Each structure stands twice: as structure tokens, then as C-alpha cells.
Amino acid sequence: MNYTVQSPMRINLRPATLADLDLLRHWDEQPHVVDSDPNDDWGWEVELDRAPEWREQLIAEIDHRPIGFIQIIDPAREDSHYWGDIPANLRAIDIWIGEEIDLGKGYGTQMMQLALTRCFADPKVTAVLVDPLAGNTRVHRFYERFGFQFVESRRFGGDDCLVYRVNRADWHHENAIALP
């Protein structure tokens, strides 16, 4: 199922598939992506072939041109227990723009609007989490614009991160996008 932002730039989300393997590997090597996620191995060869109920991996496109990636998970059900012991009815988002040339054009904002709208479309979801690197102040401000609030500093693997959370009640509903 595709979700579309109605704007001058039409962003569609589609499921990531094994056909995206080379693209995602390429994006993983881009300096701005490495800077935001230096120690993660996404295991694309395996993960793109899996479709657990607790996860969506999506490619963002404009006019069929891939521009970014979004992962939405249910952190309580996720099998690696990355988030540890966590309550039900939450979602966690990973998001990035693939090519540096596509940064600063509003694509990330629209992608995040789509992701949050998707998360909160489920009436049981009470909040959404993100875990940017502690030193990435630019992305902290990006999340704060969507109503995310700092929760705690936390180490995930080898990375010092800040956990941010936006509760359904605090989400800026003016950023909602009508989903088909």
C-alpha cells in the first residue's frame, strides 16, 4: 500500500524489497548516512527478505525516484530487543535521505509527516520513539519540530544516543497527512 503526501513534491512510500538491495547498500556508504548511523549493520540481504508483523521497511520516492528510507517498528515486539523492556503500543522510527544532494529540500519533513501519520493511524499507538546520536544536534531540532521531547541519554551498542518521544496528545496534528 502506498501513502502519498499531497504537495508540490509528491512523495510515495512503498515497501522495500530485495530489488532495493544495491540501492540501500549504496546509501549506507554515503558519508551523511554513516555520520548518522555509524555502527549499525542493517543486514539488508536477510532483512529485505523478511516481513515480520512488527516492522515496515519503506522506500520514499518522488516520481518513482528513490530518495530515502523509513523503518517503523513495534519496539515491544521487535525480535532483537534493541529497545529493551518497553511497554506495548509504541512505535519507533528510523529515517534517512539517501543522497546528500536531496538534503535540505523538505523531503525529510514530508517523510516524517508520513511516518508519524502512519504510526498514529493505529488508535492503539500512544507514542513514537526515535534515537538520534547524541552529537547530532541538527536532527534533534528536526524531531523537536514534530513535538518530540527528550526522554533520556542512552547507549545503544557502540553509540551514545538521545531518546526522544512524541506522545499522541503532543503530536502536532497540523502535520498530519490524510492517508488513502
Kindly provide the radius of gyration, computed on alpha-carbon positions and rounded to a whole number of angstroms: 15 Å
Instruction: Identify the CATH architecture.
Output: 3-Layer(aba) Sandwich
CATH homolog superfamily = Gcn5-related N-acetyltransferase (GNAT)
End-to-end CA span: 9 Å
Proportion of strand residues: 25-35%
| Average of per-residue pLDDT values | 87
Spell out the helices and strands N to C. Answer: EEHHHEEEHEHEE
* Biggest sheet overview: 8 strands, mixed
Question: How much helix, percentage-wise, in residues?
Answer: 10-25%
- Supply the helix-strand structural class: alpha+beta
Number of DSSP helical runs: 5
Number of domains: 1
* Strand order, sheet with most strands: 1-2-3-4-5-6-8-7
**Count of DSSP strands:** 8
Q: Indicate the CATH topology.
A: Aminopeptidase
Coarse shape:
globular
CATH class: Alpha Beta
- Uncertain spans: 1-7
Explain what the structure shows.
This protein is α+β, with helices and mostly antiparallel strands. It has one domain: 3-Layer(aba) Sandwich (Aminopeptidase), CATH 3.40.630. Helices cover 22% and strands 29% of the residues. The protein contains 5 helices and 8 strands. The chain has helices at residues 21-28, 31-36, 44-47, 107-120, 137-144; strands spanning 3-4, 11-15, 55-62, 65-73, 90-97, 127-130, 149-156, 159-167. Strands 1-2-3-4-5-6-8-7 form an 8-stranded mixed β-sheet, covered by helices on one side. It is globular, with a radius of gyration of 15 Å. The termini are close together. The model is unreliable at 1-7 (pLDDT under 50).
